[in-house]
Design goal:
Length: about 260
Amino acid sequence: MALIIEEWNVKPQAGEIGIEIEMEGRNLKIDDILGWRAVHDGSLRGESIEYVLKTPKSRNKVDYYLKILQEALKNSWSILLPSNRCGIHIHINCQKLTTQQVFNFIILYLIFEDVLVKFCGKEREGNTFCLRAKDAEALIDALIIAKKEGSLRILQHDNYRYASINISSIGKYGSLEFRAMRSLENFNEINPWINILLCIKDKSLEFNQSKEIIEAFSMNGYNRFSRQIFGNYFNLIKVENMNDLIVEGARRVQDIAFIDERY
């Protein structure tokens, strides 16, 4: 099966993590920040900037560049005032994954989506800039069609851009974009969220077919299955009614997962 980078005409990137931080505030620094560029974002209000990593970074370099940005804003006496319009978008490079592996990544994320969005902040639940699958069921319908076709092309449309998981970024950058996290004044708090997403990516690569994910969940139960996915991060994302939320997520994606994979 072809890799994503072979299927899509995207610019090759060696780094694994891309970061976009939307911020409102005062005296926000807009230039001379190593590794970052500042761009205008029309969805924000007042004095506002979106800080974007110029190029994706390896997972062991992310903390370094977040500290550079934090220090640059501190030295500029920037006042950070993130609102419910602001979010942090994390791109995970999938260029060297196959289409099947990307489907596995998507399905595993969607099983835990309700739990993870709660972790990202109450204001992110039902937020129109990062809709969950339960808020926009058309995403599930599109994924069913995509899985039957063995291609993500049906999802390469801005109609799906504002989902908690933006699949349309595959066609543009060869990445999946995760839009659920609220903007934070302390950038150190971004690292756990990135590592949680990497846990999902890494575990998803252990399954040959998507149905094996559902089977593993059914066999192990929510607690053991979740701990296998997230390891030390399990307690960080644990919420009330976690079992019910994960069961609901698994039921939501099972029709996608059990589509016969012949590609």
